[in-house]
């Protein structure tokens, strides 16, 4: 099964139009995370910096807010629309054409990569002007963001194949996003949590992403070296993609 | 296909052969050892009550649903082992199909034409089905008739030699119905085969060359509309609808699926 380039191009255009023409999806997948950034940025001005880490509130949270933004694209912007397309029979209609599933899945990944990249790009600019990303860290920040985005998207597609109803998926994913972020150390340093949470955190893929950001941006210690975290994230992405291919359903 | 004439070698083998098809949903048998043939240049109607299994039959034919027993060959190819190839030759209008709601008609046509190696010019199909003047209208704001016309247009875009339409004229006004019938007749004269699921007796009588009546999991009558009337009528003036009621019963019984 090979990717049909012409179909891929038109499916990507379609995916972008469907998102940009729907204010609700556009707001929750693209704009919502920036409200968090503004909120935490504002809070940072009144909360004292951590003496132990030597970091301000927003310095520590900044990568976590980006992960939250990427999770919005990956979960709410990927799983939910995919389930909706299946629920409404759009996937079934596509199945009555010669379109193959690899072309369709890739088109959806590319659309979300574009959206996610837009977010990474805006976060990079904001982070640079807020003094949270140094000039030398811009490229590593973007690369880590992209590695994280790919992993999150594969999760989004996997979940889109598992859930059957959009209402259930929106509820579970919205409810699940915050604990996942908390337990990955993106909002609170893991060492202040009880041991049981620390153990759990190493079973959460986003922990490796958080640690990678912290290693590069904040020079914090982590269980694995930088390349180790990158390898873990890539292995998880490939494994989840293969699982997605197996579990993908048109109807 | 019809809209843009082109030289073709007329196919000799049937466009569709369904042989001994059985389909169960758990313990419930929906289609039982059903056989059916559709030839090139023929409009073959599948008549049956709502929920009798017409859509299930179509979905088995195009490989959307697995079946329990039998064989299905489209253009001589087995659906189980050649689905990808078959999908390039078949145009399908699924029942109650949904499309990307925020795309316009023209964008939808453009998208679907990108799925085929050698598609027809979609502007011509839009002209034929009177979609050109509303080409910028978004799918979510289309009326039932406009949506049906778009779905029929999409089924033609890949220049198929076999077209499958699942109740294309249900719930639409007579003008649109006539337009769709005209398009189907044109397809037929171009030697394309059409399998048409319907419960509209007028449609079956007017445009179908042969009709199969599906009832109680089986095809209970098959032939030209005239043959079916002649073979099953109770009184001289019986119409196809009367005969259909004789064969399938007039009570409002529970539907199968």
Secondary structure elements and pairings:
The complex is a heterodimer of chains A (251) and B (257).
Chain A: H1 5-20, H2 23-44, H3 57-87, H4 90-95, H5 101-129, H6 138-162, H7 166-183, H8 195-201, H9 205-218, H10 226-247
Chain B: E1 16-25, E2 28-38, E3 43-47, H1 54-61, E4 69-74, E5 77-78, H2 83-89, E6 90-93, H3 105-113, H4 122-128, H5 144-156, E7 162-166, H6 174-189, E8 193-198, H7 201-207, E9 210-215, E10 218-223, H8 225-232, H9 240-248
Parallel strand pairs in B: 3-8, 3-9, 6-7, 7-8
Antiparallel strand pairs in B: 1-2, 1-4, 4-5, 9-10
Measured between the Cα atoms of the first and last residue of chain A, the distance is 20 Å
Extended strand count of chain A = 0
Task: Output mean pLDDT of chain A.
Answer: 86
Approximate helicity band of chain B:
25-40%
Keywords (chain B): ATP-binding, Nucleotide-binding
GO molecular function (chain B): ATP binding; ATP hydrolysis activity
InterPro entries (chain B): AAA+_ATPase, ABC_transporter-like_ATP-bd, P-loop_NTPase
Protein name (chain B): ABC transporter ATP-binding protein
